[in-house]
Design a protein that fits this description.
Blueprint: H1 16-20, H2 22-37, E1 48-52, H3 61-74, E2 79-83, E3 94-95, H4 103-106, H5 108-113, E4 119-121, H6 125-134, E5 139-143, E6 155-161, H7 181-187, E7 190-194, H8 197-206, E8 214-222, E9 233-238, H9 243-252, E10 256-262, H10 271-284, E11 287-291, H11 292-295, H12 300-303, E12 306-309, E13 311-315, H13 319-329
Parallel strand pairs: 1-5, 1-6, 2-4, 2-5, 6-7, 7-8, 9-10, 9-11, 11-12
Antiparallel strand pairs: 3-4, 8-13
Length: 332
């Protein structure tokens, strides 16, 4: 589903609909409190680094996980990822096989991350953490799950989209927050703001609450594609947390966007939607382009018709992230 527009209004004027929904937000928070109070957290046999966020929707969690997979593997760490497998049908624990599993079984993000190393999906993330440790994991990256009380975290990194920040500052359904800002930041160890330099500076100004944490700034950098996009006509489509972020990336790469199509995060692409996109691209003599996450939800025959643009999260400085991991698990 797509987030309602009033979620992203300025917190000084969140709007009438948001205000009317405040009682429901209090019920959401009460439910979260009861869930936490009645859950006995489980400690994993190996350190767990959680990559989460405070808002519903994308904030750069999976790109951060992918970046850490590569960085830790380069240090010789046997790192495994644990995910709920949002959108998948398998209850797990299940070790994702990127060549045999379908996104409908394990979810699109786990399937994408499995290209970088072992990924486990499970509704019970504590059970998946145990299986990962039994399989030889030295360290577990928990993709999302910051608000899940079932598994103890050694350390937690909060991802923040520089443009959206924390929206109107209110909790679901009155706003995009999964929990109040102060409460969430109080449990975190580090925040990573993702966006262009000027966007990150504005985010820090809008959200002074971030001063309670060490903050790393990062950018999503597109990787070189097989075909140059400069001046090329492009029909772009994306079903991610904020599709406009992807469209802006394509513009920055020099692509000539003659059509853009936004879908809900994790939304399956029906045959009718794909036929329409393909017909539009052929009529305009344009390339069809999508994200790496969306590409895993395409049928095999459609992937030949669509260019995938990969992005990689690149922090301005890894020092604070490396120090956090070393403090949490020792020098690996």
């Amino acid at each position: 589903m797509k987030a309602p527009g009033f979620w992203w209004q300025d917190r000084t004027s969140p709007g009438l609909v948001s205000t009317l929904l405040l009682p429901a937000s209090f019920l959401w928070q009460a439910g979260a409190f009861v869930r936490t109070a009645w859950t006995e957290p489980v400690s994993a046999p190996v350190p767990v680094i959680c990559i989460g966020n405070l808002t519903a929707g994308g904030a750069g969690k999976s790109p951060m996980v992918a970046a850490l997979q590569s960085r830790l593997a380069a240090r010789g760490v046997n790192v495994h990822v644990v995910s709920r497998g949002y959108g998948g049908q398998i209850t797990g624990p299940h070790l994702v096989n990127e060549t045999e599993d379908a996104y409908r079984d394990v979810g699109d993000e786990p399937l994408m991350l499995a290209a970088n190393g072992p990924v486990w999906v499970a509704k019970d993330r504590a059970a998946a953490a145990r299986r990962a440790a039994e399989a030889g994991a030295d360290l577990i990256l928990l993709d999302d799950g910051f608000q899940n009380p079932g598994l103890l975290k050694t350390a937690s990194i909060i991802m923040v989209d520089a443009v959206q920040g924390f929206g109107n500052g209110r909790v679901i359904p009155a706003g995009p927050l999964r929990e109040p800002i102060a409460e969430g930041l109080g449990r975190a160890d580090l925040a990573v703001i993702v966006g262009a330099p000027e966007e990150r500076a504005q985010c820090r100004e809008r959200w002074p609450e971030l001063k309670v944490l060490d903050v790393v700034e990062a950018e999503l950098v597109p990787q070189r594609t097989g075909l140059p996009l400069v001046g090329e006509p492009v029909i772009a489509f994306a079903g991610i947390g904020r599709p406009e972020k992807f469209f802006s990336t394509l513009r920055a790469m020099g692509a000539k966007l003659i059509g853009t199509h936004s879908f809900g995060d994790h939304q399956p692409f029906s045959p009718a939607i794909l036929r329409r996109l393909l017909r539009e691209a052929r009529t305009a003599d344009a390339m069809l382009v999508t994200t790496e996450k969306d590409a895993v939800r395409l049928p095999t025959e459609m992937r030949r018709e669509v260019m995938t643009v990969q992005v990689r999260l690149e922090p301005d400085d890894w020092a604070l992230i490396d120090a956090l991991i070393d403090r949490s698990v020792g020098s690996i």
